[in-house]
Please model this.
Amino acid sequence: MPDGKHTREINVVVNGEPISAAVEDRYSLADFLRKVIGLTGTHLGCEHGVCGACTVLVNGDAVRGCLMLAVQAEGCEVTTIEGLANADGTLGKLQQAFMDNYSLQCGFCTPGILTTLTAYLRDHPDADEPEIREALSGNICRCTGYDTIVKAALSVAAEMKGARA
Amino acid sequence: MKPAPFKYHRAETINDATGMLASLDNARLLSGGQSLMAMMNLRYVMVDHLIDLNPVSELAGIRIDRDRVELGGMTRQRTMLESDEIAIRAPVIREALGFVGHVQTRNRGTVGGSLAHMDPAAELMGIAALYDAEITLTSTRGERTVSIADYPMGYMTPNIEPDEILTRVSFDLWPQGHGYDFREFAQRHGDFAVVGVGSQLTLDDKGEIDRAAVVLIGVDDGPVRLNDVEEALIGETPSDDLFRAAGSMAAKQEMMGDALITADYRKRVADAFVRRSLTNAAARAKEISHA
Model:
């Protein structure tokens, strides 16, 4: 066993803000976000890659925050739930659609679902219902039955399509 | 919950990684981390040193040279899923990748990681078997190549020495116009396959099957090529009866049972899925003249 704690200094940009911090080698990216820099919006559910609650965007792509080490995020741009609102503090489109469609109950899974859908709808603005359901297959919600989440996602997709037309 | 303490090492080149792997005690390689990190979080796996292969750019990439493909070990599943060349030349890979985990795990997960982890339900192991792939392993001692048939040594035990890195997997493409299909049954989308089936075939200019490959995943430690089914298909014209018989033959395989799924149930799924997979592969195949 190696002696003592192993730590590294990492440089990451979180929600647009450059951050340099020391972190234990064994810390997951989600642990780093929550415990080192205090962004507790990223939730940890199963911590073995199944539930999707910890999903964050790394260089724009949705990844499991519990299966990536913080030290691996060196030089990366990370977006969390705290970075999805508009600059003036009002809710982003997808967040507002979740409000309008009652897409959350307890809200534990919501940060992971919002980050997942943010990347998915950016890459697939023409997504239909089966595609959105498949995109959500890596996020477990035990309250809603997904119907209202899918409805919110479809409403944003329709709005994005309208904006491009 | 987090892993037991370890020291993290960043490899920049293959030589870096093999050097560290040969000299550090109780070291493991980290590729996409979509299985290893989960096992470390659960402390099924405890390591003293973790060697990160993610910065090793020479390990990632899809190279197609005429009729041969070479996938670097660190090629991400998403990269393969989005590759136009793969979609055109080896569409069964794209079809199989749709069943590999979820969008979040495919963004990190790699082909080499999947083959080295060797889960019995690994779709990419099934693909490697379907193509009779060769796996290249590199260490400070040099390089060696293992055929997929000699690669599984037992449950989650690939033919990789402790100082070796899975650097690439290579295989010959099938001719343009071949038929293909990959399908699987799992308890929820992206979960481990109860049974998965991959199949490919070619039709000659008389419409008869002149080459066939069928593989099952999720039924044994490693993928199972159905050689008897393949032989029975050669020279035959695709028909419902032919593929029904192929399904029945597949169901005669020994299959594993576990706490949730019995062996008999796997056999029933395999029976139906082999029939459906071959039916779809034949429908997709174009007759190829060898004149």
Residues 263-284 of chain B form the longest helix (22 residues).
